[in-house]
Write a structure and sequence with these properties.
Layout (H helix, E strand, L loop, with lengths): L4 E7 L3 E8 L4 E10 L6 H15 L5 E5 L3 E2 L2 E2 L14 H9 L6 E5 H12 L8 E7 L3 E7 L2 E3 L8 E2 L2 E2 H5 L1 H6 L4 H19 L3 E5 L19 E3 L6 H12 L4
Parallel strand pairs: 1-4, 4-7, 8-13, 13-14
Antiparallel strand pairs: 1-2, 2-3, 5-6, 8-9, 9-10, 11-12
Protein name: Polyphosphate--glucose phosphotransferase
Family: Belongs to the ROK (NagC/XylR) family.
Pfam families: ROK
């Protein structure tokens, strides 16, 4: 019998968010639970928060978890905006043990990949044709690239060099806040980043997401690039939804 509900947890540099998900509609069931990302964000400290969120939700089924990292076969190979102790950590085994579940009941994914999978499935159908790049603007910049709806996992296009800098160091949403940039000032940086990226991969569509997508009317209309840009329909919940679907269906990269 196909699962109708799932549970996803999205680990970010500033917050860890989890919620029950209606897998038929791609929508959260009730409110999401959010706890600040611990400092330092070591694997053990983050696992404790993931266990707390799962317990608060009263969920005892499979759990999908996203990390801001390259994740291959459940192992983290990078650590963007989380503690470097994550590098080389078998996250599958860590969370399975901490949650009291089998390894097969935990699905680990890169955070942007999870968000992109949700958008491809439940978002605008135009995203399922051609080359689509989803970009999440938050503490850093996450990327997910799809060819006719099929994911190319673990792209790290938030870290391409733009004008001598790692792109996310200049254009992440967190930089807008830390440097107190206006939306037009920040949009100029995002525009520069997207113009470099579109000349590298020539996408047919950009989807922009992350927490700042809730204020998309303040900056997306200011973008002036060749590639069409749409806003993530699931906004900042896409990672949770994608993780829940991955766990229910046993998807992992």
């Amino acid at each position: 019998m196909e699962a109708t509900r799932g549970f996803g947890i999205d680990i970010g540099g500033s917050g860890i968010k989890g919620a029950l998900v209606d897998l038929a509609e791609g929508q959260l069931i009730g409110d999401r639970i959010r706890i600040d990302t611990p400092k330092p964000s070591t694997p053990e400290a983050v696992a404790d928060v993931v266990a707390e969120i799962t317990a608060q939700a009263g969920w005892d089924g499979p759990v999908g978890v996203t990390l801001p990292a390259v994740v291959k076969k459940g192992v983290a190979h990078t650590a963007a905006n989380i503690d470097r102790k994550w590098i080389g950590t078998d996250a599958d085994a860590l969370f399975a043990k901490r949650l009291g579940r089998g390894v097969d009941d935990v699905a680990m994914l890169n955070d942007a990949d999870a968000a992109g999978m949700a958008e491809i499935r439940w978002g605008d159908p135009i995203a399922r044709r051609g080359v689509t790049a989803l970009l999440t603007f938050g503490t850093g910049i996450g990327s997910a690239v799809f060819q006719d709806g099929k994911l190319v996992p673990n792209t790290e296009f938030g870290h391409i060099e733009v004008d001598g800098f790692d792109a996310e160091k200049k254009a992440a949403a967190s930089v807008k806040d830390s440097e107190e940039l206006s939306y037009p000032e920040w949009a100029e940086r995002v525009n520069r980043y997207l113009s470099v990226l579109e000349n590298l991969i020539w996408p047919d569509l950009f989807i922009v997401g992350g927490g700042v997508s809730k204020k998309s009317h303040k900056w997306v209309p200011l973008l002036a690039i060749r590639t069409p840009v749409i806003v993530a329909s699931l906004q900042n919940n896409a990672g949770i939804v994608g993780a829940a679907a991955a766990a229910a269906e046993g998807i992992e990269h």
